[in-house]
Amino acid sequence: MGKETIKLTRKIQLKVDTPTKAEKTVVYDTLYRWQNRSFRAANLIISHLYVQERIKEFFYLSEGIRYKLADEKKTEEGILNRSKMNCTYRVVSDRFKGEIPTNILANLNNTIINNFRNNLPEYSRGERSLANFKKNIAFPFGPVAIHGLSYNEEQNAFCFRLFSIPLKTYLGKDHTDKRKLLEQLVAGEIKLCTSRIQLKKQKIYWLATFEFQKEKHGLKPEVVAEASLSLEYPITVKSGNATLCIGNREEFLYRRLAIQAAQKRAQSGATFCRPGKGYKRKTKAVKTFYELEKNYVSNRLHVYSRKLIDFCVKQQAGTLILLDQEAKIETAQQEAFVLRNWNYYELTKKIEYKANKAGIELVIG
User: Fold this and answer.
1) Distance from CA of residue 156 to its chain's centroid?
2) Do residue 86 and residue 187 come from a single domain?
3) Considering the domain boundaries, does residue 253 fall inside one?
4) What is the DSSP letter of 189?
């Protein structure tokens, strides 16, 4: 039986809640310092983890050596002077003590170790390169770092302190569920898990991870819905005598091709654009159409997947089967046009997430 809870991450823009520009400058300097130390610490952690695992191969010239990557106090064959997880934490903690909160280092260490363990078989077979963290890394922190989260009516924002830094949310014209999730968090109805802070183009984003109960719809596991994905009709689903076609070729594909044609015209005309700031100025229109296509596709796939799950809930279908999905993915990889214009994988992921949230078992055939 699966878990009764589900985790959901939302990207929320934050602003520094201080009255003067000088105070805001200090806050930004602090956040960017934390980001830099997280970037350096992450690469140190992953390097030490990899070397620890490769110690097994360093002993190939000797015989009879018995060793184990464990604390020597707990295991006779142990070669570490502390636990394996604590080793990498102590390395970065000793290096950056006083420059970054230890809560960030601890959560960063746990996250990297968990990901390393999951990918270790591929690392060992040489099928995957070692993770390389960039300077714009989003640094994690535990829920204990959030203090005094509450809604301020005067500012029309949720205010809180991240460690000692005063921040407030900026939701703008929010058409998603971010405000509702924050209200539930303040009321104690849902739980906040380890989240991250991302700094991008002088803006602060809170990648907040919420944990809450799955939806209860009284679904019947014996009722099965069968769905098929294609370019002609993005989704065709059938359950019992009920059939539904979600989207069509004219709505999805033709609109996308129209945006691509506009982007090509913008590329052709970029040569004759006013130079201004060089490459960025000339390709501004091209980038606009690129973002337009990406946002349009993402929105359509969200709508299609939402309609599919609503249909299953209405029919009380506790099981959803995606028919011949693997064969269609192989076909898409062979045909350039289909590969470029139909997002099988992305749509499948959106269906998988929404099905899990609604308590529907998804089977990919």
Assistant:
1) 27
2) no
3) yes
4) S
How many degrees, rounded to 5, is the angle at CA 117 between CA 114 and CA 118? 90
Q: Judge if 95 and 151 occupy the same domain.
A: no
Q: What burial class does residue 334 get, using C-beta atoms within 10 Å of its C-beta: 0-12 exposed, 13-18 middle, 19+ buried?
A: exposed
The pLDDT, as a whole number, for residue 61 is 45
What confidence tens digit (pLDDT) does each residue in 65-102 have? 455 555 555 555 555 555 667 788 888 998 998 999 99
Specify the pLDDT at position 76: 54
User: 132 in a domain, yes or no?
Assistant: no
Same domain, 183 and 275: no
Last residue of a domain, one of 158, 184, 213: 213
**What is the SS3 assignment for 306?**
helix
Lookup: tokens for 351:
């269906």
Q: Are residues 237 and 352 in the same domain?
A: yes
Q: Give the integer Cα–Cα distance in Å for 68 and 77.
A: 5
The residue whose two tokens read 């192989």 is 330
Given 213, 236, 252, the domain boundary residue is: 213
- Mean pLDDT per segment of 10 residues, for the chain of length 365 residues? 77 93 94 96 92 68 51 54 73 90 94 92 87 92 94 93 94 83 93 94 94 85 88 85 86 86 86 69 84 90 92 92 77 70 84 89 85
The closest of 118, 116, 119, 96 to 106, measured between CA atoms, is: 96
Q: Residue 154 is encoded by which pair of tokens?
A: 């005067």
Longest distance between any two alpha carbons in the chain, whole Å: 74
Both 118 and 152 in one domain: the answer is no
Q: Do 244 and 356 share a domain, yes or no? A: yes
Rounded CA separation 282/296 (Å): 23
* The pLDDT of residue 277: 63
Are the beta carbons of 301 and 203 closer than 8 angstroms? no
Residues 232, 358: one domain?
yes
Between the CA atoms of 41, 102, 15 and 212, what dihedral angle is there, to the nearest 10 degrees? 100
- pLDDT tens, position by position, 195-225: 999 999 889 999 999 998 888 888 888 899 9
Regarding whether 232 and 200 lie in a shared domain, the answer is no
Structural domain harbouring 12: 5-18+139-213
Q: CB–CB of 325/364 below 8 Å? A: yes
Size of the chain, expressed as the number of residues it contains: 365
Domains identified in the chain, total number = 3
